[in-house]
Design a protein that fits this description.
This protein is α/β, with parallel strands linked by helices. It contains nine helices and nine strands. Strand 8 and strand 9 form a beta hairpin. Helix 1 crosses helix 3 and helix 7 crosses helix 8. The longest helix has 17 residues. The chain is globular.
Length: 235
């Protein structure tokens, strides 16, 4: 483990590596989770890819595909400005898009990079090929956009708002670990507003199916069973 990462870990959290797999672990003396048992958090892109292969037979009918592609070409580029654990980015790769993901937290970024490395080593040909269409960067999404832009592509945002944090924290130990690692974030809505104001690009914002709109002016929405994608076109 990179020793520089220690300064980004709150008390009681530890990064450990086992057989090449980087894991986020909760120590027994962690002050945040006294008396609780937590399994290590690690990312498995190979397993997720196999799941998509077995469950998603009609890619173009997927709500996320419809939200991003619209009338654009299938291989359009997507800037995932709020990468997190990479689930949405991996799904977008599976659906045929080129993806550039931005993650601001160095610990989460390290988990992503480790999972991508293992996917290249142990994935099937389709996954290895897809990894070539995925770039992951450490930093702030706004700063990346100002330097690199996104060409003719689409910007994707999955902001984790306070009400989502509370709901997920009650049902998922992994989300509780992440919340403890990342701390409270108050700038998610500002990030959405920034891209609406500055990007001039199509913006797709992921929301809970019955969640409130982040901001008025949605041009179109695509809904799935539990998720809604609010779409804003360039103004």
């Amino acid at each position: 483990m990179d020793q520089n990462l220690k300064k980004y870990l709150p008390p009681g959290l530890l990064l450990c590596e086992e057989k090449g797999v980087l894991k986020l672990c909760v120590q027994k003396d962690c002050p945040e989770f006294v008396g609780e048992n937590f399994s290590p958090l690690w990312l498995d892109f190979v397993g997720q890819w196999k799941y998509h292969q077995s469950s998603l037979k009609a890619k173009t009918k997927e709500p996320l595909f419809k939200a991003i592609a619209g009338k654009l070409k299938k291989n359009t580029e997507v800037l995932d400005a709020t990468c997190g654990l990479g689930g949405d980015s991996l799904l977008m790769l599976f659906l045929g898009f080129r993806v550039c993901s931005i993650e601001r937290n160095p610990v989460v970024f390290s988990l992503l990079e480790n999972a991508k490395k293992r996917a290249l080593e142990h994935g099937d040909n389709s996954l290895v090929q897809a990894m070539g269409n995925w770039q992951i960067f450490l930093g702030e999404a706004c700063e990346y956009f100002e330097k690199e832009g996104v060409g003719e592509g689409v910007i994707f945002l999955d902001p984790m708002y306070p009400e989502q944090k509370r709901k997920k924290a009650l049902s998922s130990k992994e989300m509780r670990m992440l919340k403890y690692l990342l701390g409270e974030s108050s700038d998610d809505q500002k990030l959405v507003q920034y891209f609406l104001r500055m990007s001039g690009k199509k913006l797709v914002v992921k929301r809970p199916l019955k969640g409130e709109r982040v901001i008025d002016g949605v041009d179109h929405s695509v809904s799935g069973k539990s998720t809604r994608y609010d779409i804003y076109f360039a103004r």
